[in-house]
Amino acid sequence: MRPILRAYTFVIYAMAFAAGATLVWLMVSVIASVAMRNLGIQPFAWLFTSAEYGLLYMTMLGAPWLVREKGHVHIELVTAALPDGLRSVVSRAVAALCVLVCGILAWKGADLFLTNIARNDFDVRAYFFPRWILTVSFPLSFGLMAVEFARFVFGTDLMHSGKAGIHE
Hints:
This protein is mainly alpha-helical and about 170 residues long. It has one domain. The chain is about 75% helix and about 5% strand. The strands form 2 sheets. It has a two-stranded antiparallel ribbon.
């Protein structure tokens, strides 16, 4: 079981690293595009398209790690006012709802991914790009987020700390 957990943790952190690298690429591509325009050079078509795709991938690849690290934004005004026992119940219920929503989105994302493959859909802006390469990120990311939220439902750690305020 421990090798499976290590492999899973590696996947979560590798996705987070890829999201960080994508953020660096976004910075470089925007600077290059602006510099080219200021020099009177038409930026490459793939530069803009890769930035668009990068926004999607950065968000989807980094989200499971953010859930694991409690890096997503959440407000604890209500849970901070609750006694410890009730806060635990409410926190686990909220996490269970998050599992449900992420599970539905993973399922619908998988359906979209499989539909893109079956129809042989292409994104035809700058280049012909198979659309499934974009939509594969939906079931992957939302599925892993469901697992991470499930850790707050069944594990010892709670999603809510009990400290009032907005946490990010």
